[in-house]
Design goal:
It is a single chain. The protein is built from nine helices and 13 strands. It is an alpha/beta fold. The chain has a single domain, classed as Ribokinase (UDP-N-acetylmuramoyl-L-alanine:D-glutamate ligase, 3-Layer(aba) Sandwich). Helix 7 packs antiparallel against helix 8 and helix 8 packs across helix 9. The protein is globular. The two termini are about 15 Å apart. The relative contact order is 0.14.
Amino acid sequence: MATLICGSLAYDNIMTFEGHFREHILPDQVHILNISFLVPSMRREFGGCAGNIAYSLKLLGGEPLIMATLGEIDAQRYLERLDLLGIRRDYVRVLPDTHTAQAMITTDKENNQITAFHPGAMLFSHLNRVSDARGITLGIVAPDGKQGMCEHAEQFAQANIPFIFDPGQGLPILDGAKLCQMIDLATYVAVNEYEAKLLSDKTGWSVMNIASRVNALIITLGAQGATIHHRNSIEVIPVVPAERIAEPTGCGDAFRSGLLYGIENGLDWATTGRLASLMGSIKIAYQGPQTYPLHRTEIGARFETAFGYRLF
């Protein structure tokens, strides 16, 4: 069983502001906003939604297949990284004379984030087609180039492959009509609390209306856990307390790996949601979106400790 992960591969340039954004952004002056933050520390990490989800799903023992684009100018480090992790890159396309997508992420002391993003090769993600992949039983359309997200959703639906629609950072580039279409094509929708509100506003559909159109609507709530709306019921997923709070970048992607693993392996929603919650909790204790080096057996042990029953 293989899961096709359509989304971005990117380099994350992660910076830390040792203060609070809210103390420096004046609400009544945002129309003339001109502000700079001193960020004493900076790291460059492997990132992108597809890379982050695949990394986490691989730790769980899944078989992730990435469908994404890299820029030839700086692709080699990421290709070597995927080989080192044992993640297949059959459907990773390298485009000539192009940079790989780059995220510039600044995080403050309250884990709020300001991000600037250069899409680079990601803009050409539509050159990849779901029909090119073989042996796929589940998929996800994660944030990527606009045309790529739209076409990959259509292609999953045409191939009768169930998939999660995870609009995330792609929400601003998708209008209401297109979002409605993609929800109706999807089997599942996964968003955070803010994205759920934005998705509702842009589509004109309530959360319950969106939930009625898919097999499950998953809404993450940060420190309050998550809810899974399915079959006219709501599964409340508790948060797993983190060992420490290091950095939120990639937590949502780690959560989605748990969803994919649970769906792929036929777990019930209570167990699937709890696994997803655990993966997000594990990730937030580490800096960088692909740096938590846990083995599957350790993840299983942590699950049993947190919830009182065995997963694997």
